[in-house]
Design brief:
The protein is of the alpha/beta class and 346 residues long. It contains 15 helices and nine strands. It has two domains: 87 residues, Orthogonal Bundle (Arc Repressor Mutant, subunit A); 203 residues, 3-Layer(aba) Sandwich (Rossmann fold).
Length: 346
């Protein structure tokens, strides 16, 4: 490993400015304007109704970051930018700024020193607050990451799901709902129950209608630790949720989910995991644990061995773990063995 230099430290200190420049450019539609043929700051400013000087400074910063090309005052899109940063393109990922660089996260990060001192969030309104508005942005804009992960989950469950006479699916803390709805797209006999806070469910249902499965979706509004879950279900999904809690609390949720899972049914998880590898080999997961530190009371990314322990405690066996290509996430699927009563309340 090379010795740390002042330049390395300064680059880290400047990282928030790079994020702010990219986020502003997407919000202001700068990449869209250049894709439409604008090549100067005057043209971009006119198309997007911006100040010319402010636009020029932003375009220069984008060029400095390699997101635009520059030649004799003519700006162009860097290679790959049209596919990723121009709204309307199939590969557009710009809306992830509202998820991965949200104003909610910016505000919470200011409390990191105090969160380290305390061992958990110091924000009075945080990721565990009922009705937290961030989850509306997450539900509306997380498709760029959720869609490929949902397709992998549907692939993993597919051969088993196709053999089932019926397929009742519970998606706990569904957010956008894409995991359940993608499986329902693949399996015409599937019906999905989407559970989340009341402010999130309308956004999930919009995705269900867009994917053509709205007529096979029901909703359950409330706290997943307390509301009547109904059941039994053939699949229970818990996606990008368990890292919000301690191992003990996450195990409670897994046991609750297993209690409404039919004998032989599948539990399907999505989330970050860590291994025994050095933190530098799994940087995204360890940085995500920092987000959980500032945003939750006891959350963190759990190691794979902890997932195995939690699932075993919930009576889940035959566990398979599948990495998501190109993303630092895993799809984990296991089988419930044992009988459950038709309805479990509380």
């Amino acid at each position: 490993m090379t010795e740390l230099t002042p330049a390395d430290v300064f680059d880290l200190l400047l990282a928030y400015k790079k994020t702010a420049v990219l986020t502003a450019a997407i919000e202001l539609g700068v990449f869209d304007a250049i894709a439409s043929g604008a090549t100067t700051s005057v043209e971009v400013a006119k198309i997007r109704e911006l100040d010319e000087r402010g636009t020029r400074l932003l375009l220069n910063a984008l060029s400095a970051l390699g997101l635009l090309t520059w030649s004799e005052s003519a700006y162009g899109l860097a290679a790959g930018a049209e596919k990723l940063l121009v709204r309307g393109q199939p590969g557009f990922v710009g809306d992830m700024t509202k998820v991965m660089a949200s104003t909610w996260e910016w505000a919470a990060l200011a409390g990191l020193p105090d969160a380290v001192r305390q061992g958990g969030t110091v924000a009075p309104v945080n990721a565990e607050t009922p009705g937290y508005e961030y989850w509306e942005d997450f539900a509306a804009h997380a498709s760029a990451v959720a869609s490929p992960t949902a397709r992998l989950m549907a692939d993993v469950l597919g051969p088993w799901a196709e053999r089932q006479g019926r397929l009742d699916v519970l998606d706990l803390a569904c957010g956008h709902g894409l995991y359940g709805y993608t499986l329902a797209q693949r399996q015409p006999h599937a019906r999905v129950w989407s559970l989340d806070w009341p402010n999130v469910l309308p956004l999930a249902l919009a995705h269900a209608r867009r994917l053509g499965v709205g007529d096979r979706v029901s909703t359950i509004a409330g706290d997943m630790f307390a509301v009547d879950l109904g059941g039994p279900y053939d699949v229970v999904m818990i996606t990008n949720v368990l890292h919000h809690f301690s191992e003990e609390r996450a195990t409670q949720l897994l046991r609750r989910a297993a209690g409404v899972l039919a004998d032989g049914g599948r539990i399907a998880l999505v989330g970050f995991t860590t291994s025994d590898a050095p933190p530098a080999a799994e940087a995204a997961a360890h940085l995500f644990s920092i987000l959980m530190l500032i945003w939750t009371n006891e959350g963190e990314v759990h190691p794979s061995r902890v997932y195995e322990r939690m699932l075993a405690s919930a009576g889940i066996s035959e566990v398979e773990s599948h990495p998501v290509p190109g993303l630092p996430l895993r799809v984990i699927v296991g089988r419930r063995v044992g009988q459950v009563s038709p309805h479990v309340s509380g």
